[in-house]
Cyclin-like domain-containing protein
Amino acid sequence: MGKESEGEGKLTQLDRSIKILVDEPTASATEGIEPSTERIHRLHGTSLIHDASTLLSLGASTFATACTIFHRFCHQCSLYDYDVWSVAAASILLAIKIEEEPYAMKGIIHVFAHLYRKRIMLATTETPDQVKSHPLGASLPAASTLSLEEKHQRMGKVPLPSKLGPVYKEWHSRISKMEAIVLRQLGFTLYWIPDSHPHKFIACIYDALELTDVKLAQRAWEYCNDSYRLDLCVRFPSEVIATSAFFLASCDLKITLPTNPTPWWEYLVGKGKEKDISSITNVLLGLQSAQDGSTFNNDMMLASLGFVKTIQKTKGETMSSFNGVGSFLWDHQSEVFAKEM
């Protein structure tokens, strides 16, 4: 078991890893959605959860719980049926309730409304051409002629939606409906999620291996966080993900872990897990080290900084994308930014 050879590109490495993981197809894959398309939507959704968690000052466990809910729902339901914005917001709302963090719906709506106008303006990207030219990306026409400074100035002048206004009501309605849909789809059984994060095993592994370098545990914690960008939490047991995180952390810090008389990972998770550990580490390496200028690097940039166009198919008003191109929220935001301010 080891890292990929230097001659292999990171994009190839990630794609091969994803191919290994799709032995059990997702609902999107079953309906013919390409793995690369599903991947960028997953990255987009978890990026929104990460940014929202940061703005709301939520704990690491709440972030992990929200990502787990998001991936489990997206594993069972197709991207043709639901958009990642509403699923991500509903996942945050449910995670806050499960983790008992004090936060009102108003705060969640304001954060996602802020992220929405920020993403469709592409206000934070340093290389807009890579994002704007992406086939799955979209941005407001009014933003194309503005400098980065002008975008920030205009965003600062736009107030957050009022509770009595149509924008707030639209966000509230969609998030509330999606919360109920997610709960029904997952069978109302979410209480176990906080106790099943790979982070929970870091201290146990650290003590079991009698380690003394705290940086190793910190690095493994970071890899556990990275594992939530894609659906590893759905496909592998938490203890195997944590073990993979320690393997990568030990490689990064050049710390040798015991292999005699029994390899340390067998001591922790049992025999026959080498293939799973290899698959997980390949995915994490791909997320960490995407080559500059590669297709995957552009996907990561769009998913993390821009707005990914939904592929949801309209099935009546209740199933239509509520904030995609041409929606009420999109047109309203376009009118706001088009005004002379």
